[in-house]
Write a structure and sequence with these properties.
The chain contains 14 helices and 12 strands. By secondary structure, it is an alpha+beta fold.
C-alpha cells in the first residue's frame, strides 16, 4: 500500500516535468518527421531526375548508334572510327562520345580526358554484350553519367561486332536542381516544429492526466495485480479507452482464475490416476510374470499371448511411473539430491545395469566430477543411449568432456539415418514420435519373444523410455523427462545431425551445484 500511494502522488508532483517532456517529444517527433520528409523528398526528387536523365541518355545513345552504325564498315580504321564517334556526338547534343574497336579508340572531343570517367567495370559490362549499361561517376569532384552499349550485327542473331560506344553526360545541372529543391523543403521545417510545440502545450492538459492513470493501471496489471482498474469519467475517446481497459482486465482476471483451476485439476487428475493404477498394475505384473515363466510349457498361441501380456503390462507400468514423474515436474515437487559424483563411473554403471556396455563405445576420461543427482543422471543416460541403440545404427559412442568454462558435456552419437529437421524440433515433446503414422504392434506378436523386428532406424525415433528405462519400448515421455532432469540441474539437452550421418544428442551440465526454486523454497 505504501508503494501504491507513492505511485499516485508521484505524477502530481512532476506535472510540469511531464508537460515539458511531452512538448519536447512532440517537437522531436515533428523535427524527425520534417527531416525524414525532407530526406525522402530529396531522395525521390534526385531519383526521379537521375532516372529521367539516365533513361533519356540510354535511349538517345541506343537510337543514335543504330542510325550511324548502319553506314559503318567493319572492321573500321582509325579515320572511319573517329568520324563515327563525331557523328554520334552530333546527334547527342555534343556529348563526349568514345568509340572502341579492339585496339582502336576514337573520341569525339580530342581534348577531352575520358580515362578517369569510363571505369573498367563499365567496360567489362559492355564487352559482355548484354545491352546498354550506365554508371554514375565522380571525376574531379563533378558528377557524370557514362552510358555504354555494344554494337551488334543486324542479322537476327544479335552477334557482337566488337564495336563499343560510350557517351559521357554532365550531371551538374541535375545536381543543382535537386539541391535547390532540398533548400526549399528545409525552409518549412521551422514552422512545422513551432506548430508541433503549440499543439503539445494544448494537448498536455487534457490528455496527460488520464493517460498517466491508465499507464499506472497498466503497470499494475503487468506486475500481476489483476484487480487494477481505471476510473471512467466522461464519454470521449479516453473514457472509451478506460472502459475497454477495464473490460480487458475483467476478462483477463476471469480467464486467469479459470486456467489456474483447470491446470490444477488436470495435474491432480493425472497424479491421482497414475497413483490409483499402481496397485492393480502391481497385481497384473505378478500375474504376467508367472505366465511368462510358464510360457515354455504352454501351447504356441498361449505362449505368445502370455509374452504379449507381460510386455504390455511392463510398458504400462513404465508409462504410469513416467506420468507420475512428469506430474511431479509440472507441480514443482521435484527434489534434487545432488552430491559430488564421478560422471564416468555413473555412465558406466548405468550402461552395465542395462547390459549395454558391450554395445557402446565409451570415451570417458577419468576425473570428470560434478555436483549432480546420480539417479537423475542415470535416467538421462539411459534415455539417450537407449534411443540411440534402438533407433540408430552402430557404432553408438558416448563421449564425456569437461571444457574449461565450468561445464560438463556428455555426447551420445550414432551412425543411423538421423532425425529430420522437424523431428529435431519436437523430439523432446511429450508422446512425440518422428513417424506419427506408425502404428505400434505388441512386441511379443512381432517376434514371439518380446523383441522388435524390422522398422528402419529413423522411422521410430520417439520421446523415449521413462525413468524405469531398460532399453525396451518407450512410454513416449522419456525424452521429456530427460530434458526436465537436465534443466533441474541447470543444464540442457541439444540434438543435432552428425556430419557423416546419424544423430548427436548433447547433455550440457554445470559442474557447480545448481540451486532450484524448489530447494530455495524449502
Amino acid at each position: 500500500m505504501v508503494n501504491r500511494r507513492s505511485a499516485r502522488r508521484g505524477p502530481r508532483r512532476f506535472v510540469g516535468g511531464l508537460r515539458v517532456r511531452l512538448v519536447a517529444t512532440f517537437v522531436l517527433v515533428a523535427l524527425a518527421s520534417a527531416v525524414t520528409a525532407t530526406a525522402l523528398a530529396y531522395r525521390d526528387a534526385r531519383t526521379a531526375v537521375l532516372q529521367r536523365t539516365q533513361n533519356t541518355a540510354v535511349n538517345d545513345l541506343r537510337e543514335r548508334v543504330a542510325v550511324v552504325a548502319a553506314g559503318l564498315d567493319l572492321p573500321p580504321d582509325q579515320r572511319s572510327l573517329s568520324r563515327f564517334a563525331a557523328r554520334v556526338s552530333e546527334g547527342l547534343g555534343a556529348r563526349i562520345v568514345v568509340a572502341r574497336h579492339q585496339d582502336l579508340t576514337a573520341v569525339s572531343d580530342a581534348y577531352a580526358d575520358t580515362e578517369g570517367r569510363i571505369t573498367a567495370e563499365l567496360r567489362a559490362a559492355v564487352r559482355a554484350g548484354e545491352g546498354a549499361r550506365f554508371q554514375r561517376v565522380e571525376w574531379r569532384g563533378e558528377p557524370y553519367l557514362v552510358v555504354g552499349t555494344p554494337v551488334t550485327y543486324a542479322d537476327g542473331d544479335r552477334r557482337a561486332s566488337g564495336l563499343e560506344v560510350f557517351a559521357i553526360t554532365d550531371l551538374r545541372a541535375e545536381r543543382d536542381d535537386t539541391a535547390a529543391l532540398l533548400d526549399s523543403v528545409q525552409e518549412g521545417t521551422v514552422p512545422v516544429v513551432a506548430a508541433a510545440a503549440l499543439l503539445a502545450l494544448l494537448a498536455a492538459g487534457t490528455v496527460l492526466r488520464p493517460v498517466r492513470k491508465l499507464g499506472r493501471a497498466t503497470r499494475e496489471l503487468a506486475a500481476g495485480d489483476l484487480g487494477s482498474r481505471v476510473a471512467v469519467r466522461g464519454h470521449d475517446e479516453l473514457a472509451d479507452l478506460a472502459r475497454t481497459f477495464n473490460r480487458t482486465a475483467d476478462a483477463l482476471q476471469s480467464s486467469d482464475a479459470e486456467l489456474r483451476a483447470q491446470e490444477a485439476k488436470a495435474r491432480r487428475f493425472v497424479a491421482d490416476v497414475s497413483h490409483e493404477l499402481r496397485t492393480p498394475l502391481a497385481a497384473m505384473t505378478m500375474v504376467a510374470t508367472v505366465l511368462e515363466e510358464d510360457a515354455d510349457r504352454l501351447p504356441a498361441d498361449a505362449a505368445r499371448a502370455a509374452r504379449t501380456v507381460g510386455a504390455e503390462t511392463a510398458r504400462l507400468s513404465r508409462l504410469v511411473e513416467d506420468l507420475m514423474e512428469i506430474s511431479r515436474f509440472d507441480a514443482g515437487a521435484v527434489r534434487l539430491n545432488a552430491s559430488e559424483t564421478d560422471l564416468a563411473d555413473t555412465v558406466r554403471a548405468s550402461l552395465a545395469l542395462r547390459g549395454w556396455t558391450d554395445r557402446v563405445t565409451l570415451r570417458l576420461p577419468e576425473g570428470v566430477r560434478a555436483v549432480v543427482d546420480r539417479r537423475r543422471i542415470d535416467v538421462i543416460v539411459a534415455n539417450l543411449v537407449g534411443n540411440a541403440l534402438k533407433h540408430g545404427a552402430p557404432p553408438v559412442t558416448v563421449t564425456l568432456a569437461a571444457p574449461e568454462d565450468g561445464r560438463v558435456v556428455l555426447e551420445v552419437a550414432d551412425r543411423g539415418p538421423g532425425l529430420p529437421p522437424e523431428a529435431r524440433q519436437r523430439v523432446f515433446d511429450r508422446f512425440y514420435k518422428a513417424d506419427e503414422a506408425r502404428t505400434r504392434a505388441p512386441a511379443a506378436v512381432r517376434d514371439g519373444r518380446g523383441g522388435e523386428q524390422g522398422g528402419g532406424p529413423a522411422a521410430g525415433w520417439e520421446a523415449g523410455p521413462g525413468a524405469g528405462l531398460d532399453g525396451g519400448q518407450g512410454s513416449g515421455l522419456g525424452m521429456a523427462i530427460a530434458l526436465e532432469n537436465a534443466r533441474l540441474h541447470g543444464g540442457t539437452i541439444e540434438v543435432a545431425p552428425r556430419p557423416d550421418g546419424g544423430a548427436l544428442f548433447t547433455l550440457v551440465l554445470p559442474s557447480a551445484p545448481h540451486r532450484t526454486d524448489e530447494e530455495g523454497d524449502r
